[in-house]
């Protein structure tokens, strides 16, 4: 692991038994409050996607709303939120999914993307992949040209990347 990634990995806070017993929560808010870590995240995300023609960054509620707009701004792209039900004011598409500790649903505005878009959905953590898999299904309903998927952290032992279609490139800054 290079020194930049090592700094980020050391700055992630572990919260045992959150939100339920048996879950080891990776708290990335410690990365966001540290100006150096925030800059490193911004720079690393930009370097990953600067030459891919990204037109929209899709942030998954809620921690995808932090680095998603930063990446969109750096890339000169738009930002689109994927939210929990009842949070988006216009007509939506929705997808339900199972996660490590329950079932949930996410929504996107029906007019958020189109067939000319090259999209990178972003979230903080890849565990089992359920949330982002649902987000990708929503994005793909709008038939964009290409879909990439990005996380700050991938928990490798949970093999969440295996749930994505082969045409979706999955990348993470850190693999823990």
Tell me about this structure.
By secondary structure, the protein is α/β, with parallel strands linked by helices. Helix content is 30%, strand content 34%. It has five helices and nine strands; from the N terminus they run H-E-E-H-H-E-H-E-E-E-E-H-E-E. It has a five-stranded parallel beta sheet with strand order 4-3-7-8-9, with helices on both faces. Strand 5 (92-99) and strand 6 form a beta hairpin. Helix 3 (35-49) crosses helix 4.
Give the key terms.
5-stranded parallel sheet, alpha/beta, 176 residues, two-stranded antiparallel sheet
Secondary structure layout plus pairing:
Layout: H1 3-11, E1 13-16, E2 24-27, H2 29-33, H3 35-49, E3 56-60, H4 64-75, E4 78-82, E5 92-99, E6 102-109, E7 118-126, H5 130-140, E8 146-154, E9 169-175
Parallel strand pairs: 3-4, 3-7, 7-8, 8-9
Antiparallel strand pairs: 1-2, 5-6
Helix pairs in contact: 3-4
Work out the number of β strands: 9
Distance between the termini: 11 Å
Given the C-alpha coordinates, what overall shape results? globular
| Number of separate helices | 5
Biggest sheet layout: 5 strands, parallel
The SSE string, one letter per element, is: HEEHHEHEEEEHEE
The parts where pLDDT drops under 50 for at least 5 residues are none
- What is the share of helical residues? 25-40%
Q: How are the strands of the biggest sheet laid out side by side? A: 4-3-7-8-9
Average pLDDT over all residues: 95
| Strand composition percent | 25-35%
Radius of gyration (CA) equals 15 Å
Question: Pairing-aware structural class of the strands and helices?
Answer: alpha/beta
